[in-house]
From TrEMBL:
GO terms for cellular component: cytoplasm. It comes from Pilimelia terevasa. GO terms for biological process: porphyrin-containing compound biosynthetic process. Probably acts as a heme chaperone, transferring heme to an unknown acceptor. Binds one molecule of heme per monomer, possibly covalently. Binds 1 [4Fe-4S] cluster. The cluster is coordinated with 3 cysteines and an exchangeable S-adenosyl-L-methionine. It comes from the Bacteria. SUPFAM superfamilies: Radical SAM enzymes (SSF102114). Keywords: 4Fe-4S, Chaperone, Cytoplasm, Heme, Iron, Iron-sulfur, Metal-binding, S-adenosyl-L-methionine. Belongs to the anaerobic coproporphyrinogen-III oxidase family. HemW subfamily. One of its GO terms (molecular function) is 4 iron, 4 sulfur cluster binding. The lineage of its organism: Bacteria, Bacillati, Actinomycetota, Actinomycetes, Micromonosporales. Pfam families: Radical_SAM. This is Heme chaperone HemW. The keyword Transcription does not apply. It is found in: Cytoplasm.
Length: 407
């Protein structure tokens, strides 16, 4: 089940932001995230803020969800008032399974974002999708509505791995959906992979990588399996039915991904993400990693505007009820101080292939970076040029490198 929200200060009932935050909105770019919390079934590893029909209960429904999101969008427009962003650079619809909503509903939400703030002429508009939740007709409708990019949850091409993860699609469905998305006119298609699942063999992951490459996508995201408390998979592991993931195996899988994807012309630009060209990189995620602004619509969605971060109530029924009452769905917020901004800049910047400017680090951090380079974790040439850039070994130990330079 979904994990708890962070602690924070109360959000004003009207969602009002400090004037300094409103004045700064969009200076480093502005995006919109739309959370769609519905899934046909729950995957065994998932602790995202998603709900099956049985888990949803009363007070919220797929049929009226688009209208509820539009109500929050209207509130967002009131909050930003006469200090709107210059434009919306990116829109990302995530979940859950956004494509459980009719394409017409997703189109209505996108059109409302455009009416509210204006989409940039070159805006990147992404939707996530499970492979079994789309078909040629729905993909064509999404493309016609203005979606430019689709991210498909493949996870693996091995039937045994898909079964253990409780995925509903067949082994070949993800790559078939890629072909359908291309035929519908999507220039940018991502496939997600999960590696290190117990029982996954090296040849299983090699086959998954080969399938991704053969599909011809221009972006791949690959993540090590993380077992979260409260999930069905965690319970099975505690009972001894399934072994826990192995860090050494995960490292081997990462190296295999780098080798296969690199040979196919996809270069890493963030520790877990590879793209065929700069234009194929996920601009919405880059907006997050650059510390820009975004408004998150939907239950459990997080937002960041001008140094203020807040998050909505998690359950769709509570979210719907608050908006029906004309009050903000925000559950809590924090105003980031200088120390928090510094930590986040280092944490996010070091994960990127462009790295982090050395002068962004405190003196102790610069000294630690020199030590990390001596240990083979940061590129010596880049360091000499004034940037901290992870080596391949450093990517395997990225969290440790970040802790070192922040110490």
């Amino acid at each position: 089940m979904p994990g708890p929200l962070p602690d924070g200060a109360p959000v004003p009932v009207d969602g009002a932001l400090p004037e300094a935050a409103r004045a700064a909105v969009g200076r480093a770019g502005f995006g919109v995230y739309v959370h769609v919390p519905f899934c046909a079934s729950r995957c065994g590893y998932c602790d995202f803020n998603t709900y099956t029909a049985a888990e949803l209960g009363g007070g919220a429904s797929r049929e009226t969800y688009a209208d509820t999101v539009l109500a929050e969008l209207a509130l967002a427009r009131r909050v930003l008032g006469d200090a709107p962003p210059a434009r919306v650079d990116t829109v990302f619809v995530g979940g859950g399974t956004p494509t459980l909503l009719p394409p017409a509903d997703l189109a209505r939400i996108l059109a409302a974002v455009d009416r509210t703030w204006g989409l940039a002429p070159d805006a990147e508009v992404t939707t996530e999708a499970n492979p079994e939740s789309v078909d040629p007709r729905s993909l064509a409708a999404l493309r016609a509505a203005g979606f430019t990019r689709i991210s498909l949850g493949m996870q693996s091409s091995a039937p045994t791995v898909l079964r253990l993860l409780d995925r509903q699609h067949t082994a070949g469905r993800a790559t078939a959906a890629v072909a359908e998305a291309r035929a519908a006119g999507f220039d940018h298609v991502n496939l997600d992979l999960i590696y290190g699942t117990p029982g996954e063999r090296a040849e299983d992951f090699a086959d998954s990588l080969a399938a991704v490459v053969a599909a011809g996508v221009d972006h791949v995201s690959a993540y090590a399996l993380i077992v979260e408390d409260g999930t069905r998979l965690a319970a099975r592991m505690r009972r001894g039915e399934v072994p826990y993931p192995c860090d050494d195996v995960a490292a081997d899988r990462y190296l295999a991904a780098e080798a296969a994807l690199g040979a196919a012309g996809l270069g890493w630009y963030e520790v877990s993400n590879w793209a065929a060209a700069p234009a194929a990189r996920c601009r919405h995620n880059l907006l997050y990693w650059a510390g820009a602004d975004w408004w998150g619509l939907g239950p459990g969605a997080h937002s960041h505007v001008g140094g203020v971060r807040w998050w909505n109530v998690k359950h769709p029924a509570a979210y719907t009820r608050r908006l029906a009452e004309g009050v903000s769905p925000g559950a809590g917020r924090e105003i980031l101080d200088a120390a928090q901004r510094y930590t986040e800049r280092v944490m996010l910047g070091l994960r990127l292939a462009d790295g982090l400017a050395l002068d962004a680090l405190a003196p102790a951090g610069r000294r630690a970076a020199a030590g990390a380079a001596a240990d083979g974790l940061l590129e010596p040439d880049a360091l000499a040029a004034g940037r901290a850039v992870l080596t391949l070994r450093g990517r395997l130990l990225a969290d440790g490198v970040i802790r070192t330079v922040l110490a």
